[in-house]
């Protein structure tokens, strides 16, 4: 990043809610309401002990193909570029952004955001 001349920062929307809960762990997220409803998270809620570390590992893994020019820190992705091979820094930066956004478009089909509900017995 030190020799780069142009930078962009992106924030991933609904961070933790993009990570599906393991089937065996869904019951561990149950919350009972005063009306008798039992809610379970199908996606990772905020506040779980290992949620930040799990989220960071997932993002780092999914964006590994672009990490040379787009490192991530939790839900933030920082794109940096410089002029190379006769291309201006802006041209290279546009290529980097297209590559990152294309990857994110492909990955977006693998996400979920939902709660299930059932009445507690």
TrEMBL record:
Pfam families attached to this UniProt entry: RVT_1
Alphabetical list of Gene3D superfamilies matching this protein: 3.30.70.270, HIV Type 1 Reverse Transcriptase, subunit A, domain 1
Residue span(s) of domain Reverse transcriptase: 1-121
SUPFAM superfamilies cross-referenced by the UniProt entry: DNA/RNA polymerases (SSF56672)
InterPro entries, alphabetized: DNA/RNA_pol_sf, Rev_trsase/Diguanyl_cyclase, RNA-dir_DNA_polymerase, RT_dom
Name this polypeptide is given: Reverse transcriptase domain-containing protein
Species this protein is from: Phytophthora cactorum
């Amino acid at each position: 990043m030190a020799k780069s001349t142009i930078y962009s920062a992106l924030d991933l929307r609904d961070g933790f809610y993009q990570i599906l809960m393991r089937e065996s762990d869904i019951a561990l997220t149950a919350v009972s309401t005063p009306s008798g409803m039992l809610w379970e998270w199908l996606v990772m809620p905020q506040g779980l002990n290992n949620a930040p570390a799990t989220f960071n590992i997932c993002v780092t893994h999914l964006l590994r193909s672009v990490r040379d020019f787009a490192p991530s820190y939790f839900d933030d992705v920082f794109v940096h570029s410089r002029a190379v091979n006769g291309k201006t820094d802006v041209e290279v930066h546009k290529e980097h952004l297209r590559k990152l956004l294309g990857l994110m478009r492909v990955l977006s089909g693998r996400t979920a955001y939902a709660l299930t509900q059932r009445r507690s017995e």
